Each structure stands twice: as C-alpha cells, then as structure tokens.
Amino acid sequence: MDRAILYDMVFKLRKEGLKQVKIAELLSISQARVSQILKKTVRDIPKWGGHLQSRLTPSEQKQLVAYLEMGAEAFGFEGSVWNSKRVQWLIKEKFNVSYHVHYIPCILRKIGYSRQKPKVVDYRQDESKVAHYLATTLPSLKKKR
C-alpha cells in the first residue's frame, strides 16, 4: 500500500475516534506502525512559528529604535550597553507590550540591530608594544603571495 494513502487512512480512522489497536486490525499493520504514523505526521496541527503579527506597530518599532539610540544610560542603566533584559524592560515600560526575553533578539534583528560581542583585550598589554608588533613583526610572518 502506498505510504501517502496509508497515512491518510490512519488519520481518517483516528479522526473518527477509533483506537490505535482497531486501526491496526483494519489496515493489517502493527499497532506500533500506527503509533509511528500518528507521531510522525503533523497534519491538522496549526503552524504557529513565523507568521505571528508583531505586537509592536511599525511606528512603535521606529520609536524603539530612537529609544535604543538614546543609549541605556538615558533610562537609568549603568553603562551604555543594551542587553535583552534591558530591551525587554524598555518595551514593557514604553509600549506596555511584554515579550519573552529569548524573543528580544528576534525583534532587534527585525528593526536592523545585530548582536555584538565586545572585543576581548588583555588589560595588562602595552599598546605601544602591540602597535610595534603589528607594524614590524606581523607583516613578516604573513605569507607572501
């Protein structure tokens, strides 16, 4: 029997309220196979991700960009760095809209921001020695083409 037809029959029988054991008997397949088909196929399940309308209007998104450009210090935070928790607080405070903290980076990407990681620099290094190394030693180590 064709797989697509089998899957359709299993789902139709299940929708009618038949138990897996009865479906297996009617279609002459094992109960385990019926269970696999029902688990594998995700028909009649609404697709939630990716199509939800934003709770922030386009004008609110523009206003959020303006707030972010003002810097975190303008809103009472120490340091000018925005993180997800701070942006979550800002959106809740200014627009009365709440998002999960894990969704904040998605919102920031939509409005044109990207994740930034500070460059790690050893506080003990001498900048003049680093500049001398970059100017003299490093070029001689690079491959000549």
TrEMBL record:
Superkingdom to which the source organism belongs = Bacteria
Q: Which SUPFAM superfamilies match?
A: Homeodomain-like (SSF46689)
Q: Per the UniProt entry, what species is this protein from, by scientific name?
A: Raineya orbicola
Q: Which InterPro entries does the UniProt entry name for this protein?
A: Homeodomain-like_sf, Lambda_DNA-bd_dom_sf, Winged_HTH_dom
Q: Which GO terms describe its molecular function?
A: DNA binding
The Winged helix-turn helix domain extends over 79-133
Descriptive protein name: Winged helix-turn helix
